[in-house]
Amino acid sequence: MRIGVVNAGNIGRALARAWLAAGHDVMVAKDGGQQKLDAFVAENPGAVPGTPAQAAEFGDVVLFSVYWPRLDAVLDAVGPQAGGPAGGLAGKVVIDTMNPLQVSGDFEHSYDAAFMARTSTSEELQRRLPAARVVKAFNTVPSTLLDARRWPAPEPAPPVLLAGDDASAKAQVRTLAGDAGFTALDAGPLTSARNIEQLNVLVHLLADHQFEGALDRLAPAVLVAAGVPTPAQG
How many domains is the chain partitioned into structurally? Predict the structure, then answer.
């Protein structure tokens, strides 16, 4: 499968690495921080570097792993590939890993509660890309844990939660989750992305108050609370 990663940040690079290992063709693009992209390509020779517009055009599936306050800028960089029924993303599966963060003048981050009360990043992305098939996924697992090697068999990795209105698109994302070493759970239509994003608020609250902000320790703890076995910590 051809996969375009529109913003190879921490999540994008983790998934790109896994999908390359699974035999997929991957083009990676970066919204700023080109040194990190260059280093990733050097460490992963199968990865093809490109611009956001090229990655959007390249992929049969396109990963939108974008810092939410930068969405407008990234969509502008993607350009005509994003817009309208005739755009390069028309008919493509677009995976949304984003969370609705807002940033203060002091660069403090918080979830945009007013936004979350009425919609989700996935619904907004679908509105902006009306001809694409948007699927919410990969936004509740910390990027450092989106590496199946952190979850050695027979212990289960945390599940990837999916939401989307197109069943075949969700099936493709489920396959890609499996290729990355994770199972996927279907939460229903795209509006369920609101619930998934709210869950991520809870994840961060638990990390902040119970684990001093250590998200790496949080995911196993949540699974223990749910009665699910977790990998050995080391």
Answer: 1
